[in-house]
Design brief:
By secondary structure, the protein is an alpha+beta fold. The chain is built from five helices and twelve strands. The chain is globular, with a radius of gyration of 18 Å.
């Protein structure tokens, strides 16, 4: 068990994953962060969640150990959720959860994120999305190029679940690596993609 010390002196502890298999569909970001922590601890990859850029406007200081941000604004639209390096390749990806069993709503993917994915692809990144259908407890790895081609070709407001099953890769669940997406990256590298 690892301890986390906060600036106000409070201590917290966490473990790799305390969630049961039945509850793992609740928080994709948490599962990816646990997976990335495992990758880092095993010196397999260095992949981090990007911080969302915010401007802090007002902070209340009743006492230093209890400082509280009371007003803040997003500086600029963020790009994608995660980036890092694996086997000398730059990885850049977005993670989204979807409550529907039948389709992924495209309104969940913002225009600035689409532009960013196109930009990093043009410069040679391994760009992808991790889409979790929470009710089905399924997480798919989808190459960004494939999803962007679908968006450009089809005049739809959503992507059918069937499309993910046919064009994506179901990401295996593992207790230590709840979203072991590097297995898919390895497969694509081996196939020359």
């Amino acid at each position: 068990m690892n301890n986390v010390n906060y600036p106000n002196g409070r201590k917290s502890s966490w473990s790799a994953s305390l969630a049961s298999a039945g509850g793992r569909g609740m928080d994709l970001e948490h599962d990816i962060n646990v997976t990335n922590g495992f990758y880092l601890s095993e010196d397999k990859a260095v992949i981090h969640k990007k911080p969302t850029p915010v401007t802090i406007v007002k902070v209340d200081y009743p006492k230093r150990s209890a400082a509280r941000i009371t007003e803040a604004y997003f500086k600029v639209p963020s790009t994608t959720d995660y980036n890092g390096i694996y086997k000398s390749r730059y990885l850049d990806f977005e993670a989204k959860e979807c409550a529907s069993e039948t389709s992924f709503p495209l309104k969940s993917l913002h225009p600035h994120q689409i532009r960013h994915l196109k930009d990093v692809i043009r410069h040679g990144a391994v760009a992808f999305l991790l889409i979790r259908f929470t009710k089905l407890d399924e997480t798919y790895y989808v190459k960004a190029e494939d999803l962007l081609a679908f968006i450009e070709k089809e005049e739809r407001h959503s992507v059918p679940h069937r499309w993910f099953a046919e064009n994506g890769f179901l990401v295996p669940y593992n207790y230590l690596k709840p979203v072991d997406y590097l297995k898919v990256v390895d497969r694509l590298i081996a196939e020359g993609d």
